[in-house]
Specification:
Length: 292
């Protein structure tokens, strides 16, 4: 891989804008550092609760194949983990009780279930701490105890290649020096594992809230940038840059795919429940049978 193509290249050949390139380079540096253990800062030594939290907007219409993904995590109960599953109504109530009307209003501005799940996960992990995982992630049975020994925020890194319109495998992009100008490095919003009141989660929640509150000029906000990985990655970049949170308060989980992967295909991915097919569009849930 050519590591010489970077932000200093001509802007005419760089597919990203200056700010996006700076954030991508920042994530790449975090991801490609040595895997040697780094001690958690003193402020992040407390451990998060062993609680797994999930969301599906309408549990009365939960697709069978998604239910199977969710139930794959139940085997962790024997290791002392508890489970909480929220729907739109219970998520809204949680936000109203613990964060107040401003945040409840922002949640209601999330026009797609994926946005609501993003917003809710920030809200829950900020208030309670714990482990949020998407409903379509399948657990592979490996131990996760090492992710609960301190309160650092544990995140999965991603890399997308604009040139091929495909994800770059972690086995490739985590290697020091691996890079292409068409690659975008960022952090996924699943899993989120952290102690309560983590400053990165606080910033991600505030940034999502502010973005949702802004008046749109006839257009719905873009999902990724408003509540998704774009928002989370920008928030991490900001808190490290303004020194309100040290880099050591974040732990990059290089091999998360050994623990869990997002299942493809699933029934809901072919209709408007898939945010990629509903981005910046008014969402109306399909009434066709979903028990596939």
């Amino acid at each position: 891989m050519n590591d010489h193509m970077n932000v200093h290249e001509s802007s005419e050949t760089d597919p990203l804008g200056k700010d996006d390139r700076a954030r991508s380079n920042f994530v790449r540096e975090l991801v490609q550092r040595s895997n040697e253990p780094v001690r958690a800062p003193a402020a992040h030594l407390a451990t998060p609760p062993r609680r797994i939290v999930q969301f599906w907007d309408d549990l009365g219409r939960l697709p069978r194949d998604v239910r199977e993904c969710m139930e794959s995590w139940k085997k962790l109960e024997q290791f002392g983990f508890e489970f909480q599953v929220f729907d739109e109504s219970s998520a809204r109530e949680f936000i109203r009780i613990h964060l107040g009307s401003r945040y409840e209003s922002a949640f209601d501005k999330c026009y797609h279930p994926s946005m609501k799940s993003d917003y809710f996960r920030y809200s829950y992990i900020f208030v309670e701490g714990g482990f949020y995982i998407d409903a379509d992630d399948v657990y592979h049975g490996t131990t996760i105890d090492h992710l609960f020994t301190d309160g650092r925020l544990k995140l999965q890194p991603f890399c997308y290649d604009i040139a091929t319109a495909q994800m770059v495998p972690p086995s490739v992009f985590v290697n020091p020096g691996a890079n292409e100008l068409s690659w975008i490095f960022y952090f996924n919003t699943t899993p989120l594992i952290a102690v309560r009141n983590h400053p990165i989660i606080e910033r991600a929640l505030l940034n999502a809230t502010t973005a949702l509150e802004q008046e749109s000029k006839g257009e719905l906000p873009e999902v990724q940038a408003t509540t998704g990985p774009g928002n989370l990655t920008r928030s991490i970049f900001e808190v490290v840059a303004d020194e309100s949170c040290p880099e050591e308060a974040l732990l990059v989980v290089h091999d998360w795919e050994k623990t869990s992967t997002s299942k493809w295909p699933l029934s809901y991915r072919s209709d408007k429940r898939n945010w990629r097919l509903s981005n910046q569009q008014a969402y109306r849930a399909s009434r066709r049978a979903e028990e596939r």
